[in-house]
Design goal:
The complex is a heterodimer of chains A (315) and B (218). Chain A is an all-alpha fold. Classes of the chains: A mainly alpha (315), B mainly alpha (218).
Chain lengths: 315, 218
């Protein structure tokens, strides 16, 4: 029963909140450019509209093209089940699930790359080769960061890591965690194709990565692709904020009241973090594609230095 | 309190990595400024600590000197020198950036293994703050030899100086005031002389690329 409640909670929160994060980021970016911007709930309207439309599928595509949107949404939802939004509900947790999280997300990305190649358009091939390069550059630093936080909390299960971080006072004032936090922030920016790496709001042929890969999709399938990307983004945000800025230890109530309060604080943290991402995105420019290895190297160095600091200090 | 210093030393070390990853002269002057801000913050916290405990203000004075000299004056001087140089090609490093960063990573490991072998009262201990700040010295050296332009080498020199200063700060928690002031006077003379030399090199050879100094001019 507890498991059922947990799964329902997790899915409802993730699916309902994911488009909001995109809305907030777009709104804050518009405000920094002195525009009024689309309403915060715009992505919900878009998804609703797209879900009611039929989709056009090219005749030369194979089953991969049809199956990919479902694979992406289901891999994103599986990932969403692995990262608890609150530690009050009894979660699905088993050893090494943080590594499973990385590769469940990678599975979605793999099929996305295949589907982009499948339709035979030139943009799709370009986009998927770029995405493959970015993800292979980012993966080492992601794994090193994960091993650092895993070592520090003596566990490889996300829920246990979150519980262990709750007992650390002010995690961001430990050098290992500070550096790992920044490393994961760069990874988040690269994984969700945000500005220094890719521009989510452009359809300029030469620079797009994520947009090039979903170019062939329309209607319901496009809605699923967008929803999958939004959920993946929220999963990564949840991982970062619940590991490095834990809040559940401050909540004294138990039971349903504590759960509600915890979710409220979580919502505030997500909104704050989205604003942070938006401000970061508005204050940088997009890199040349061949400068992305520099960013990835910096992120790897952050993760590695964090690892070193943890080893020396032992805390 | 030690927590703050640990984090600050790690951030100062990371700022030197950002410096190595920078491509343009203007952006590494800006990163140097940021690093100087972090160092001033460290000195400020240390100074407040010693002021509240022992009533001494000399580290606070040092902090003020850093703010004036390294955060404001030297970057301004470098920008002015750079604006006066005609030949502006931005790419000025020998290896590509990821390789530079990984070599710096090995320098940090080297510092980690070599700091405990230094004799004295700290022998055998790994003090992470000293490791971080000592790596800053090594990265400054490496930055100097990896850049072709004279301004890059001045920035490398300044990073070495930052590293030496911050190593002294972290290992002694405040040197005698006269030593600090002496170091600063030394620094400002060096930067002034190097700024003038860059201008002279530029006048003489029409470029500040040190590779071209090998060519003979009649």
């Amino acid at each position: 029963m507890a498991i059922v409640i947990y799964i329902a909670l997790q899915l409802v929160v993730m699916i309902l909140l994911a488009p909001l994060v995109n809305g907030i980021i777009k709104k804050v970016k518009a405000l920094t450019q002195k525009r009024r911007g689309a309403p915060v709930l715009q992505m919900y309207f878009d998804l609703y509209k797209l879900l009611n439309k039929s989709s056009v599928v090219s005749q030369v595509t194979s089953w991969i093209f049809i199956a990919t949107p479902y694979i992406i949404v289901s891999s994103a939802l599986t990932a969403a089940l692995l990262v608890p939004v609150t530690t009050f509900a009894s979660p699905i947790a088993f050893p090494f699930d943080i590594i499973m999280l990385v590769y469940v997300l990678a599975l979605g990305r793999f099929f996305m790359g295949l589907a982009a190649l499948d339709a035979g358009g030139t943009f799709g091939g370009m986009g998927s080769s770029r995405e493959a390069m970015i993800s292979s550059l980012i993966e080492p630093s992601l794994l090193v960061s994960i091993f650092t936080i895993g070592l520090a909390s003596q566990s490889t299960s996300i829920n246990d890591i979150m519980l262990a971080m709750q007992s650390v006072s002010l995690p961001l004032l430990r050098p290992a965690f500070t550096l790992t936090f920044f490393a994961l922030f760069i990874i988040l920016i690269a994984e969700t194709s945000r500005i220094p790496v890719d521009d989510p709001s452009t359809h300029l042929e030469l620079t797009m990565v994520h947009e090039a890969m979903v170019l062939e999709y329309s209607g319901r399938q496009l809605a699923l692709m967008e929803l999958g990307a939004a959920i993946k983004q929220l999963v990564l945000i949840t991982l970062i904020i619940n590991v490095f800025l834990p809040h559940d230890q401050f909540i004294a109530y138990a039971g349903i009241g504590g759960l509600m309060l915890s979710l409220l604080v979580y919502l505030i943290k997500v909104i704050g973090f989205s604003v942070l991402i938006a401000v970061f995105e508005a204050s940088t420019v997009k890199f040349r594609f061949f400068s992305i290895p520099n960013l990835a190297a910096l992120s790897f160095i952050l993760a590695f230095l964090g690892f070193l600091q943890y080893f020396v200090l032992g805390r | 309190m030690e927590n703050y210093f640990d984090v600050l030393s790690a951030l100062i070390l990371f700022s030197s990595f950002v410096l190595v990853a920078n491509k343009r002269i203007i952006s590494y002057i800006r990163t140097f400024q940021l690093q100087a801000c972090l160092i001033a913050l460290t000195a400020g916290i240390m100074g407040m600590n010693s002021f509240l405990k022992e009533g001494k203000i000399d580290i606070l004075v040092v902090c003020a000197i850093i703010l004036i000299l390294k955060v404001y004056y030297i970057p301004r001087l470098l920008r002015k020198t750079y604006a006066g140089v005609e030949y502006k090609v931005e790419k000025d490093f020998f290896l590509n950036i990821p390789i530079l960063i990984f070599i710096c990573c090995f320098l940090v490991l080297f510092a980690y293994f070599s700091v405990p072998t230094i004799g004295g009262t700290m022998a055998g201990n790994v003090n992470i703050q000293v490791v971080n700040s000592f790596s800053l010295v090594l990265i400054g050296f490496f930055f100097m030899i990896s850049r072709k332009k004279a301004i890059g080498q001045i920035v490398g020199f300044l990073v070495i100086e930052n590293g030496i200063f911050i190593t002294a700060m972290f290992s002694t928690h405040g040197m005698p005031f006269i030593v600090d002031v002496g170091v600063f006077i030394d620094l400002i003379t060096a930067v002034l002389i190097m700024g003038i030399m860059v201008t002279r090199i530029n006048d003489q050879f029409e470029t500040i690329d040190i590779n071209q100094l090998k060519n003979l001019r009649g």
